[in-house]
Amino acid sequence: MRILLMMLLTSPILSFLPSTILRTGLRTKTSLSSTLPNLLTSTLTPHLSPTSRIALSCSGGIDSMSLLKSYITSDIKHPIDVVHFNHRTRSSMEHERDVECISNLISNDPRCTLKVITNPSSSPFTQTLSSSWRKKHLSKYSIILTAHHFSDSIESQILKLTRGTSILNLKGIEREKYLGGGCLYLRPFVHLNKEELREFLGDVEYNQDESNYDEEKGKRNYVRNKLLPIWKEMDGKVEERFRGLEEEVEEIGEFLESEIIKRSELFEGEEFNVVGREYDYIDKLSFRRFTERYYISSKPIFDKIWEKIKSSIGKGPKWSLDLGGGWIVKFEKGVITVKK
């Protein structure tokens, strides 16, 4: 794992950066004051309709307060709900401080309505339950604005590498993404770094969540507070290299996606036809897409199926593989069937 990550950081291929993505340093404060509101406007406006319900998710920290300030200083007319979640992971005093910072910033803006949503349980949620809880409450909105930035994107790429992933899934956080129920998540700042957001925020009050610096509370915190600072000491161009990686992954992904579409004839209901062909990487990706249709998205399970398939092709026997949960994969006469 360590060798792979070092190769990513030092690869000459990843040194190539498109001029539209490369950032050699912070913009000036004057430039940032117009850049961030303009970014928000250009990201949001194409998706607006008179009936759009918009939520701006705001924790009270640097990132989301920068997003909120961008909205307030923009020319966007559409009203929004500023949604703050109280997970009950911190003291009531800390939460009140969050709400105070948000309220102070929006107090003179009639476009903004503050919505505070509190964990109904007296016990804190786990990280997974917290995410599900937030998504449940945000699902009534058509557009959700979040303040994810490029540092978050790097963290996501690193975590994907540690878990194991395919080249198609190695890209960072997407600027636009539809989730279940037609909710559109927009992240206008995903190509900016945290220092730029901090500079733009200026003297606006915010409340820092100290749990983001607790390395015992999740792998992301460890990557953010331990791993990335060490890499930056070793190589000051870490962010640039990850920008290059993201660009290359996007280009490769577009090519592979077009090849997968060409092989769409392999998908026939519950059957994946592999008769008389040699397997290649496109087949593997195509079959992964096929299994995801049936919610078999776990990479370890998929890899187990794939190795079984590769060892069976050309040998002629029938076999079946019990995936658990009632799911069965069967192989007979060159046809793979996934059934429950």
UniProtKB/TrEMBL annotation:
It catalyses: cytidine(34) in tRNA(Ile2) + L-lysine + ATP = lysidine(34) in tRNA(Ile2) + AMP + diphosphate + H(+). Residues 1-15 form the signal peptide. Its EC number is 6.3.4.19. CDD domains: TilS_N. Residues 54-225 form the tRNA(Ile)-lysidine/2-thiocytidine synthase N-terminal domain. Keywords: ATP-binding, Ligase, Nucleotide-binding, Signal, tRNA processing. GO terms for biological process: tRNA processing. One of its GO terms (molecular function) is ATP binding. This is tRNA(Ile)-lysidine synthetase.
